[in-house]
Specification:
The chain is α+β, with helices and mostly antiparallel strands. It is built from 17 helices and 6 strands.
């Protein structure tokens, strides 16, 4: 692999990204991560595969009995595009460094299973995991012999990235489209995986580099500072994943408290009414109406904090309706219906903390309900470890009765530990930089470099007690 990290760590990181995707996307049922080796062979090798059960509670892990991509893997020369043999989506992802979505396998030119086995129900999305060559080699890229495609063109010559892995997610038939929200989530998480893999390599190399730097003193300090700063700058994905998990928790909570409420379908009904209003306007709304309908349908997949969600509705939906209504002459009753639908969208954001709704949910202690809703409906814009500690603690309480409560708690524990590690790394970097500018005290520097925040063990993957 272009990235050199421990095999067990690599497999664990791949399992965590697959687990995150499968539990986040209800129409996804299988995930696989392939590592892509160094040039010139660029061997594509399956690391792990996971299949989620029908109840979406458990993931089964393992490799298929037969696959060309099982270890030791498949060399580039064996899967690249060649005249006279089936085209593979893997070749596209590796050569073009772009994703491939099989939204219609029957007519998919790169559906290898259809071409070889006659299986057409293979709806999937493949996403390359990219890392900058400069980041991977700290600005000192070695002389690598890159392979060529069958036309003789050298791969990756005109791009600043290398492909280090490929994520493949299988979806239920006819539930995936090119450019859909699901593919956007997989793309974002592929970047998260690339940053995570890079951070593991950086950590292992940093320990050795730090010992050497303590001996070589100032002549190598600037290089180290640049390397660490570069890693820290890429850690923002952690906060994004925490917010994604909070949205997932809000969705679980609202399904519980609204299960027997006559308002549980308020969001869906409002979107349906607004979509029908658009259809009733006919072709007169043009592309503006089509775009608005797409935005309204996207709202069904969101679970935002109320204040931020209301702002989103106002900017993305209400303002577009205002423009449409200004251009079209509608009777007062239809205009009122549209305003009512928009108001319902905003109201739906508050249902999970509505006192009347919560009062009907009498099987959960009042104190727990108040603390829980205060937490998950807080619109936070920064990492708050006390907030995460409270959230992790309250998720231990079985009274919440959330479908994926344990999984969410485990994910938040992992993300918190990773965030703490990066914060500690930033602190240590600042200590080093201060010593560089004022003259190094080798004892202070060495103690900072030995801090557990950048230790070679993997606390972020330790199972919680």
């Amino acid at each position: 692999m272009a990235i050199k990290i421990d095999k067990a760590v690599l497999e664990k990181a791949c399992k965590n990204i697959i687990e995150t995707i499968l539990f986040s996307l209800p129409n996804a049922y299988k995930g696989t991560v392939y590592e892509i080796g160094r040039p010139p062979e660029i061997i594509a090798k399956r690391i792990t595969s996971g299949v989620i059960d029908e109840e979406r509670r458990t993931i089964s892990w393992g490799l298929p009995e037969r696959s060309d991509y099982n270890p030791p893997g498949k060399q580039w020369i064996e899967y690249r595009d060649e005249p006279g043999r089936p085209l593979e989506a893997m070749a596209w992802c590796v050569e073009k460094q772009k994703s491939w979505t099989a939204e219609d396998p029957r007519n998919d030119s790169r559906s290898i299973r259809l071409q070889v086995e006659g299986v057409w129900e293979d709806f999937h999305h493949m996403e390359p995991v990219l890392i900058r060559k400069e980041d991977l080699y700290f600005g000192n890229e070695p002389r690598l012999q890159y392979p060529t495609n069958y036309k003789g063109e050298v791969l990756w010559q005109n791009t600043e990235y290398m492909v280090v892995a490929v994520i493949k997610i299988h979806f239920r038939p006819h539930t995936i489209k090119t450019g859909s929200p699901e593919t956007s989530i997989v793309k974002r998480l592929s970047r998260a995986l690339g940053t995570e893999l890079l951070s593991y390599q950086l950590r292992e190399q940093s320990v050795e580099a730090m010992r050497q730097l303590a001996q070589d003193k100032l002549n190598t300090w600037n290089t180290l500072a640049h390397t660490l700063r570069n890693a820290i700058a890429k850690s923002g994905f952690i906060f994004s994943l925490i917010k994604l998990e909070l949205g997932f928790l809000r969705g679980q909570w609202e399904r519980v408290v609204l299960e027997h409420s006559d308002q549980k379908d308020m969001k869906q009904e409002a979107v349906h009414a607004l979509n029908e209003a658009l259809k009733g306007m006919g072709k007169g709304s043009g592309n503006q109406g089509k775009n608005l309908m797409d935005v309204q349908n996207r709202f069904l997949d969101f679970s935002l904090p109320p204040e931020r969600g209301e702002k989103w509705v106002r900017m993305q939906i209400e303002e577009r309706w205002n423009e449409l209504l200004a251009d079209k002459s509608l009777d007062e009753e239809r205009a009122k219906g549209i305003r009512r639908g928009i108001h319902q969208l905003k109201r739906s954001l508050y249902l999970g903390k509505d006192p009347d709704v919560l009062a009907a949910c009498d099987k959960i202690p009042e104190g727990l309900k108040k603390e829980w809703t205060d937490l998950i409906y807080t619109d936070t814009d920064r990492l708050d470890f006390q907030f995460l500690d409270r959230l992790i603690r309250i998720l231990e309480d079985p009274s919440l009765k959330l479908a994926y409560q344990k999984k969410s708690r485990k994910s938040l524990i992992h993300l918190k530990i990773l965030a703490e590690m990066m914060c500690q790394l930033e602190h240590n970097t600042n200590v080093v930089l201060q010593q560089v500018t004022s003259g190094p005290d080798e004892g202070k520097i060495f103690n900072a470099l030995k801090n557990t925040g950048i230790h070679s063990s993997l606390p972020m993957w330790t199972k919680p007690a």
